[in-house]
TrEMBL record:
It holds the Pfam family Acetyltransf_3. It comes from the Bacteria. Residues 9-171 form the N-acetyltransferase domain. Keywords: Transferase. This is GNAT family N-acetyltransferase. The keyword Transferase applies. PROSITE patterns: GNAT. PANTHER family: GNAT-FAMILY ACETYLTRANSFERASE, SPERMIDINE N(1)-ACETYLTRANSFERASE.
Amino acid sequence: MQILENNNIRLRALEPTDLKLLYSWENDSSIWEVSHTLKPFSLFVLKQYLETSHLDIFESKQLRLVIERKADHEPIGLIDLFDFDPFHQHAGIGISINNREHQKKGYATEALETLCDYAFSVLQIHQLYCNITSKNEASLKLFQNQGFEIVGLKKDWIKTQNGWLDEYLLQKINTTSL
């Protein structure tokens, strides 16, 4: 098995052919609250992003990968490392299973486990963190089941159309790193 694969999923680099898919997912306003997006992305901007997505994580400070099913190579979501700090050896992590018919089938668990293993063993990251709103119970459960611990609560952190939401800060420490 390859390092960026698990039983049912493969994490792969973005391809130029992913432009329309990325455009559709990034402009899905139903997930903007989770992604902290305030406006749509243009095809032009996303094309520029794809043209630089080949940059090394040490240069760009981020890594975005497509989650695809191994059985049929269907793209089902995205997983990211961001705010990568090679000196302090930490990074943020985020995930989205964009095709709703593929949610609650274990793909997010496999993708998160696979990227955590890669971050800790290959990139030698000491800790990963994520921010999750208090109402996002599915994501809280996903990350906690993968060893992330709640280490803080930011009250009234996220403004929504329906009011303010608290946001949890979760961390996972690589206990095998120096």
